[in-house]
């Protein structure tokens, strides 16, 4: 897996985001489109695509998209 | 491991009763229009039924039970067990099932008691009533499940209010030597007890004037300590982690495969969650019905309500192989594999 592929997958699931909006350094909670529902969408996506479980606590420790990516990668 | 089978019990009928009053999440103006659209898309929940202030769970279950007894043409004196599964009983005591024994004019030879479970309650209730009936050779029994969750929700809590609806159901079971066995896999994890909880009003934290005070937890989440708390992320995680393996173990134990089942009826809490479980188990979408858009999360009523509202026309006059799975508050979860032949399912009634 690489981060650009990871970002493409998130952007495909989160329809509210214009493709190209997300960067590895994006602090996702600061996005105007961000809502708690997106956390569920990301957890479901990671579970399906990478078979990795992200808990609420894991996600709270992440600030940027890169943080989530690194977490998933470390669990692979 | 709580993996076991129960012989000689036939599922004869299911009925469901919901409140007349419907609320739409399109009108839930505590959150923005964009949030409403995303909530409906993600959870699948658009409409919910809300009980009138004077009606309780047992009123809905009573109406569902009377309708079902009538459709089945049962003689009430043959019904000798009644179990009520709910987290919104009429009183702290006595148990609501006992009040319903009298209200339904069931004989005094009937045994009656309550079970305090929510999302997993239909599966647990079915295992309990079926075990007692098969051991005691009780001819006919009623399992009543449901909740009036609206009574414990705060309309200023976006993390709970738009998710839950009210409903009561009745399920009829009969002793039948020829019935195929039901296979269960039941599990619990009390470490997650705070994930879905009402903190005040029991004996651990009794009601005080402070229990009624609304507090802002975060933006969009305002509630008191007598309101329901739901940690959506944790429930989501728990369900993705536990439900698939629970079902796989069950299929392994009774030597069946996904293809052997006609329908997989899951507890209705969140469409994205159930769809993720469905895809991971490689179940075809047409085998997984949803009533979420009509009724929301109806707690222990969700599985029987979904069968009645989504499948009743497809399953009468045939044998249907069901896999049913409930998961949530407790944390508690369980699945059952069972057959239903010529199941009587009158249309959903309103009260």
Task: Write a compact overview of the structure shown.
The complex is a heterodimer of chains A (76) and B (351). Chain A is mainly α.
Compile the SSE list and pairings.
The complex is a heterodimer of chains A (76) and B (351).
Chain A: H1 3-13, H2 36-50, H3 56-60, H4 65-75
Chain B: E1 3-6, E2 9-18, E3 22-24, H1 33-43, E4 47-49, H2 57-72, E5 79-85, H3 96-103, E6 111-115, H4 121-136, E7 140-147, E8 167-175, E9 182-188, E10 196-197, E11 215-218, E12 221-223, E13 229-230, H5 232-253, E14 263-266, H6 271-280, H7 292-295, H8 302-315, E15 319-328, E16 332-341, E17 349-350
Parallel strand pairs in B: 2-17, 5-6, 5-7, 14-15
Antiparallel strand pairs in B: 1-9, 2-8, 3-4, 7-8, 9-16, 10-13, 11-12, 15-16
Helix pairs in contact in B: 5-6
From the helix content, strand content and strand pairing of chain B, which structural class follows?
A: alpha/beta
Spell out the helices and strands of chain A N to C: HHHH
In spatial order, strands of the major sheet of chain B run 6-5-7-8-2-17
Largest sheet of chain B: 6 strands, mixed
The proportion of residues forming helix of chain B, as a percent range, comes to 25-40%
| Count of all domains of chain A | 1
What is the CATH topology of chain B? Peroxisomal Thiolase, Chain A, domain 1
Describe the protein in words:
The complex is a heterodimer of chains A (76) and B (351). Chain A has helices at residues 3-13, 36-50, 56-60, 65-75. Chain A has 76 residues and is mainly alpha-helical. Chain B has one domain: Peroxisomal Thiolase, Chain A, domain 1 (3-Layer(aba) Sandwich). Chain B is 29% helix and 26% strand. In chain B, the strands form 5 sheets. In chain B, strands 6-5-7-8-2-17 form a 6-stranded mixed beta sheet, with helices on both faces. In chain B, strands 1-9-16-15-14 form a 5-stranded mixed beta sheet, with helices on both faces. In chain B, helix 5 runs parallel beside helix 6 (271-280). Chain B is globular. Chain A binds chain B through residues 16, 33, 35-41, 43-44, 47-48, 53-56, 59, and chain B through 34-35, 38-39, 42-43, 159, 231-234, 236-237, 240-241, 270, 272-273, 275-276, 279-280.
């Amino acid at each position: 897996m690489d981060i650009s592929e990871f970002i493409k997958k998130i952007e495909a699931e989160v329809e509210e985001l214009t493709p190209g909006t997300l960067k590895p350094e994006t602090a996702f909670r600061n996005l105007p489109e961000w809502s708690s529902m997106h956390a569920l969408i990301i957890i479901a996506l990671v579970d399906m695509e990478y078979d990795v479980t992200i808990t609420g606590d894991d996600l709270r420790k992440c600030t940027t998209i890169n943080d989530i990516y690194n977490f998933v990668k470390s669990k692979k | 491991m709580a993996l076991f089978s129960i012989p000689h019990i036939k599922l004869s009928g299911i009925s469901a009763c919901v409140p007349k009053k419907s609320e739409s999440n399109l009108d839930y103006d505590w959150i923005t229009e964009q949030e409403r659209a995303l909530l409906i898309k993600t959870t699948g929940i658009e409409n919910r039924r809300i009980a009138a202030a004077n009606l309780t769970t047992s009123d809905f279950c009573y109406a569902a039970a009377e309708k079902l007894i009538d459709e089945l043409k049962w003689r009430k004196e043959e019904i000798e067990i009644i179990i009520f599964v709910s987290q919104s009983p009429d009183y702290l005591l006595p148990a609501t099932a006992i009040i319903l024994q009298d209200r339904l004019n069931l004989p005094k030879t009937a045994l009656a008691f309550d079970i305090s479970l929510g999302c997993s309650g239909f599966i647990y209730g079915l295992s309990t009533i079926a075990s007692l009936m098969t051991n005691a050779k009780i001819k006919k029994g009623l399992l009543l499940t449901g909740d009036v969750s609206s009574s414990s929700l705060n309309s200023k809590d976006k993390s709970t209010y738009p998710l839950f609806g009210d409903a009561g159901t009745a399920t009829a079971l009969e002793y039948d030597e020829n019935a195929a066995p039901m296979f269960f896999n039941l599990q619990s994890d009390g470490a997650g007890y705070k994930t879905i909880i009402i903190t005040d009003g029991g004996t651990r934290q009794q009601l005080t004037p402070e229990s009624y005070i609304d507090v802002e937890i975060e933006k969009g989440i305002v509630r008191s300590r007598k309101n329901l708390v739901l940690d959506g992320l944790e429930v989501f995680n728990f369900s993705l982690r536990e439900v698939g393996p629970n079902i796989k173990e069950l299929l392994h134990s009774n030597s069946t495969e996904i293809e052997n089942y006609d329908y997989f009826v899951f507890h209705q809490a969140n469409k994205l969650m159930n769809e993720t479980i469905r895809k991971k188990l490689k179940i075809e979408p047409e085998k997984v019905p949803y009533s979420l858009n009509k009724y929301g999360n109806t707690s222990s009523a969700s599985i029987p309500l979904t069968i009645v509202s989504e499948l009743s026309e497809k399953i009468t006059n045939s044998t249907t192989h069901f896999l049913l799975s409930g998961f949530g508050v407790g944390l508690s979860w369980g699945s059952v594999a069972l057959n239903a032949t010529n199941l009587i399912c009158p249309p959903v009634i309103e009260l």
